Amino acid sequence: MTDIIAPSTPGSFASDWAAWHEQHEAQRASEHGFLAVSDLVWLGPDPVRVAGIPGRWAVTGGTGSADGAVTGAGDAAERVTVTVDPAEDHRPSAEPLPDLSRNGVAVRGTLTLDPLAEGTGVNLRAGDIVVEVARRGGRYIVRPRHPRNPLRVNYTGTPTFEPSAAWRVAGRYVPFARPRPTTVGSVAPGLEHVYAAPGQIEFEVAGQPLSLTAFNGASPGSLFVLFTDATSGVSTYAANRSLALDPPDAEGSVLLDFNRATNLPCAYTDNATCPLPPAENRLPVAVEAGEQTPKERRVA
Which InterPro entries does its entry note (predicted)? Predict the structure, then answer.
């Protein structure tokens, strides 16, 4: 291993990692975190029902597919509509459904949502269930987040490699001349994601030069990478792992702390549309750091 960045004070690395990991686990298993997702329904022009949620859901104003196939880039004019008929949703012979609401106001009749940009979503409520409506790969989806979803209720934590300062690796961020559109696959068959990659990160492991294409992170200037390595499908989840990075400094220096490599939602549930790493981010070395394959997938 080369270009290692050691912890600044004895014990700080281990305690900092433990605090980060505890917070990350709490967020994942929160009341409406991704472990609470109980279903994934692709919407098209034909109205459909979502189990446990009031209303009939459809896409209007475009050319959506009714068969659930994930095709095309979608239509910017498409909108999601949900039509709620209390008489239908509260039939005596059926289990009562919670009222659907938006911003605390019950939905009656037809609600038409504004068009959503790719990768975004809005939340409605149905009792204690958050009903996520989102746009992925040019298509609209509905994903209920149920606090009592068995995946969340039975979750006992994700195994990790023992944290090691040896996997805090110094890197250099090299921006592209202009952001590079990068199309990657998805765990959802037929779905693609397109990111604007601002640059790549160069680093070394055991003297071997490596690089990763980077995407923009959640906060200004930050980055994240999707990758696989020689542990993928062995001790770590086969499809992908993710690593968030702080903004590079003025000289382009950046820290890759692989101890904080995390699983994406697809590592736990099929109700996900996670992106796959670009081909160049398949590392030939074994990154024995960060999160391992969840117990839930090992059982499966």
Answer: DUF1684 (IPR012467)
Reported as a single tens digit per residue, the pLDDT across 128-155 is 999 999 999 899 999 999 999 999 999 9
The beta-strand segments (E) located in the chain are: 41-42, 48-50, 53-60, 79-84, 100-102, 105-106, 109-112, 121-126, 129-136, 139-145, 168-184, 193-205, 208-216, 223-227, 241-245, 253-257
Q: Which of 11-15, 171-175, 184-188 has the weakest average pLDDT?
A: 11-15
Q: What is the pTM of this model?
A: 0.86
Same domain? 113 vs 195: no
Supply the DSSP symbol for 127: T
Residues 113, 168 share a domain: no
Same domain, 286 and 188: yes
Distance between CA 81 and CA 84 in Å, rounded?
Answer: 10
Answer yes or no: do 295 and 161 share one domain. yes
What integer pLDDT is reported at residue 77 of this predicted model? Answer: 82
**Is 150 inside any structural domain?**
no
Above pLDDT 90, what percent of the chain? 82
CA distances from 157 to 19, 26, 150, 176, 296 (A): 14, 9, 14, 38, 10
Is residue 44 within 8 A of residue 67, CB to CB? The reply is yes
CA gap 133, 170 in Å, rounded: 39
When divided into structural domains, the chain yields a total of: 2
Positive or negative CA dihedral for 273, 274, 280, 282? negative
Tell me if 142 sits within 8 A of 41, measured CB to CB: yes
Task: Provide DSSP, 207-265.
Answer: TEEEEEEEEE-SSTT-EEEEEB-TTBTTTB-SS-EEEEEPPP-TT-EEEEEGGG-B--G
- Same-domain check for residues 25 and 44: no
